[in-house]
Amino acid sequence: MIDPDDIGYNTTDNPSFATVVDARLSRRNLLRGSFATAGGAMLGSMALVACGGGGGDDDPAPPAAGLKLGFNPVAKSLADAVTVPAGYTASVLYRLGDPIAAGVAPYKNDGTDDPATYDRRAGDHHDGMTWFGVGANGRWDAKASDRGLLVMNHESLTPVFLHPAGRTVVKGQRTVPSEVVREFYLHGVSVIETAKGSDGKWRYKQDSAFNRRVHTLTPMELSGPARGVDAVKTRYSANGTRTRGTVNNCANGTTPWGTYLACEENWYGYFYRTPASDNAHRSARELAAIKRYGVGPQEFYGLWGTTQGAADAEQQDTFDRWNLDVKGEAATADYRNAHNTYGWVVEIDPFTPDSTPRKRTALGRFGHEGACLGLVQAGKPLVWYMGDDARNEYIYKYVSNKNWDPQDATGGLAAGDKYMDDGRLYVARFKADGTGEWLELALGKHGITSSNAAYGFTDQADVVLHARLAADAAGATKMDRPEWTAVHPKTGDVYVTLTNTNASSRPIDKTDAANPRFYNDPKGAAQTAQTGNPNGHIVRFAESAGNAGTTFTWDVYLFGARSTAGADVNVSGLTADNDFSSPDGLWFSQASAGLAWLQTDDGAYTDVTNCMMLAAVPGKVGDGGKKTLTNKSGDTTRTQDTIVGARPGEKDTQLKRFLVGPKGCEITGIAESGDGRAIFVNIQHPGEDTKDADIGDPSKFQSHWPDGGSARPRSATIVITRIDGGVVGV
Fold it and tell me: How far apart are CA 49 and CA 252, in angstroms?
């Protein structure tokens, strides 16, 4: 056991890399520094390949014989620390602001770093990520274990900690351009080279030629059906073939040819528009689409479009592109169409730093949480599963028209042109009997026609541009916030986290079999009401005729709940060792086929515990049975039939809490080294509830993780390993 007095940062080899090892002796919550362990030590590093389906192998990975979770569960915690099980250790690898190029100074973390350096620093709000093994030839090698490219999303920002005193806003306008430029760069994607040293510790290489930041100013190509259509033409690209940047990248995905998929989620909140201008200059169809997607005006990121005082016309153009107001006769005179160039899956080749990312429009435009690759088999289509992260939105899948040829495994972005620009987009309908169907979103099918009352579709480009409206027309099932998708590497079952919903989005008389609960989860000493489905659940389905089929069977794998809740809320029979709320991140290990990792993004259960990560060994669709729930709202009682999975502990299913994060954070993003002996996990926005008014008083910061003391908190990637060098989790 590690002596807790030995805790500290080791920055000898790399000033931007910190090693933190801590211990908690028994359950006395003896905390030192920023990390703690439950009954033992914290561990260091894990890697992942895609969503559990995409290592490029033709056959699913074999299951580990008698797979068992090999650690004692971590207790719930409200400490400002990362807690992992006894026998494990954790290290901080990559923090907000860390330099990724030679000559860039260490991050001051006080808001005064030169904004011009931020294109060579880690972004904020670390999120979904993938670890790509690097072989001896410097190319992708899925079997590599000690050296790899870690590619991660930077979803958003915590502005209070980014500038000297938070954002500067005067009369609804951004008046300090340098602040906005800093925010531009802190969004997007990082590519960094990582390696395990001879001492067993993981570090990133600050001066690697692979290191790269993709951000809101990065030139990108539009590809697929929406390329070049009138709706994507702007002042920046008069022919509608290019755009700039990516924002709000949440979950992620991969391809069988070793590229990374960043997915644009809440992009519609970044645009500014004046409704009066739109009403005067846009058609009814355009306004219907803008309303359906909730595009501006927003009071947070939407203020980028109000920025004045640029250094020159070129810089002013980077601010203006977030303003959708019609300012000229033609669309190419302004940025009225800029929002249509967002909401896509973005393909990035991490092994070619000078390559231009492509936005793959065939996969549809919506609030992409991620794009999880299904099982890969030679001679069969490739499939990606996707959630649209908003209440009452849908679950989608994309099926390539071309069958997979393993010779394309080294094809790079050209392989993406072949498989991701030519295919069919589907949306899911869940039926009450435990079956479901995939509805193709294609012009002329399922009510997607020019005469549709809500929105008249003109061609397939119009369909993918307005996938939400097409899914509405088709009659898909509205879900309780579909987030991450994950594919079991052995069974092929598809898992989708449904993070939560509220009573206004799904009242008691609008539950259905796939979204079956309505209840109150009182929070805190005041017992503040939280009604609807505040704890969320996870639905899963098994394709009836392979990934490219159009029917499936489904059940609810797990229901989030307090262990103390009644049987109609705690349907999965969770205990103090595994109860959770608001499932978000979900991913299957390739090294230990059948091992799943579940992460939370919660606000409902935070009176009891910070956000967490759990390890699971699920069964398969159909291992439970039918169940009738009794839902209550005041004096109203209704029953709802559903189909549930086996409870943890039944039929060899397992679920244990593995990690609890620091205050105010979300646990999100996971990856593993090729041998599964290191996992990488992201700690997003610790201390996010700190108020702008408190920035001058560190004692009022909600968190000081990971640097401790009076430091501003920073999103960061940690590496978790077993002290004995074994495979993580089992």
Answer: 11
Q: Please count the residues of the chain.
A: 730
Among 484, 578, 583, which Cα is nearest to 536's? 583
- Cβ–Cβ < 8 Å for 123, 188: yes
DSSP string, 452-520: -SS----SHHHHHHTHHHHHHHHTPPPEE-EEEEEE-TTT--EEEEE--EETTTS-GGG-BTTB---EE
Do 43 and 90 form a contact (C-beta atoms < 8 A)?
A: yes
Q: Which of these, 339, 409, 400, lies nearest to 367 by C-alpha position?
A: 339
Asked whether 483 and 500 are in contact (CB, 8 A), the reply is no
pTM of the model: 0.92
Which DSSP category does 58 fall into? S
* Lookup: tokens for 465: 């541009």
- For 639-656, the pLDDT digits (tens) are 999 999 999 999 999 999
Q: What is the pLDDT of residues 387-421, one digit of tens each?
A: 999 999 999 999 999 999 999 999 999 999 999 99
Residue 598 pLDDT exceeds 60: yes
Angle at 485 between CA 52 and CA 621, to 5 degrees: 80
Closest CA to 674 of 728, 718, 722: 728
- Backbone conformation region of residue 709, classed left if phi is above 0, alpha if psi is from -120 to 50, else beta: left
Q: Is 576 helix (H, G, I), strand (E, B) or coil?
A: coil
Is residue 262 helix, strand or coil?
Answer: strand
Question: What is the rounded distance in angstroms from the CA atom of residue 708 to the CA atom of residue 691?
Answer: 19
Find out whether the peptide bond into 275 is cis, omega within 30 degrees of 0. Answer: no
Q: What are phi and psi of 280, to 5 degrees?
A: -85, -25
Pairing of strands 82-85, 35-38: parallel
CA distance 215 to 235: 20
